[in-house]
Amino acid sequence: MVPKIRIDPGVVEARIMELARIGACYETGVCRTVYSPEWVEAQAVVERWCTEAGFATRRDAVGNIWGRVEGSEGGPAVVSGSHIDSQLPGGRYDGALGIIAAITAMEALVAQFGPPKRPVEALSFCEEEGSRFQGASFWGSRAITGQAPEGLADRLIDPQGTSMADAMRAVGLDPARIHEARRTDIGDFIELHVEQGPILEHAGYPVGIVNVINGARGYRVTVVGDSNHAGAMPMDLRRDPLVGAAEMVIAVQQNAVRLGRPAVATVGYIHAEPGWPAIIPKSVTFTINTRHNDRDALNGMAAAHEAAMREIAARHGLEVSWTGGDGLDPCPADPTIVALLEQSARDQGIAALTMPSGALHDAQRMAQIARMSMVFVQSKDGRSHTPEEYSSIEHCVAGIQVLAGGLYLLAW
Ligand code: HGY
Ligand code: MN
Ligand code: MN
Known about the structure:
The chain is of the alpha+beta class.
């Protein structure tokens, strides 16, 4: 039986606002990319919270912050946390709430029940969003799980031309030591996160418990045609790559619509060259981000995107090519951890819906080295990756109680 765990809403709100001020942008947004001055300041705040809570606090080789409470019986650690970086712009909750939740839950558990039997750690991942270095998503959890190979930090370049390796040096980290961030002694990992979608709000639940995380496939597509005069070239003689790309965008969208939930497909970026009103473009580049929580369905949808792009290009006499087509596979949560979180919610009288995660998370990397699940907090209007992102303090506290109950069952 999980006793009701007392979480102070005032502390949760104060912490959300303290982090929200660091890198604040667009009124209620947050712009905080990895290894930026805002990132340094935010990780310092997390470090201070952990130290003030009495946790043994350290920064690892890639800048993840860890706050640890030793367990009287030892054993593999129980870890909870999320990422400190944001989209550009992101909201106040994506990532940040999971760090605040872990620290606040651990503090409450120690205050209410004394030291744990197993070691418990709060974790602030240095990077998840890929918002500064394209291709760097999950940098923190990749390093922890041994998937940040030597030399990668030199190859990742931000839009200003700075390499990940130089950005690390600028904040006092040595890229030659990335491998030291690897952990092999973590038993369980639970990430609390805002849902970022409308499912909980529509179903009337404050909290969700994640049983599977979507997999994704990403593409960068280039369509090439003939650049020419927008007035002198008759329509029937054109090879216009933007018209082909437009048809491809619709085809990709329709592939996901046809499959139905939880299939999704997004073209979030498109660029025409040279990109002037009186010039038929020479080439168009766009991205596809497509997701599903079933591997066969995901691969089938990706194959359908590829077939549609080939067919449309051939019909318009265009050339099409792409890079990518890969990404993380769907990741089931550990049934034992899901059951513990369900018990935590039940025992504390909190209504929780067991559900899949549409967004990707560090948790799916951590699942490669630990038993994993996640706690979701209802997102208002399902908004996320925007400054409008919002979750009520009441719902945040309910989520933290469910997380704390899960940690209690695992470690106390
Ligand atoms: O895109 C994602 O799902 C993650 O939030 N970056
Ligand atoms: Mn995000
Ligand atoms: Mn996130």
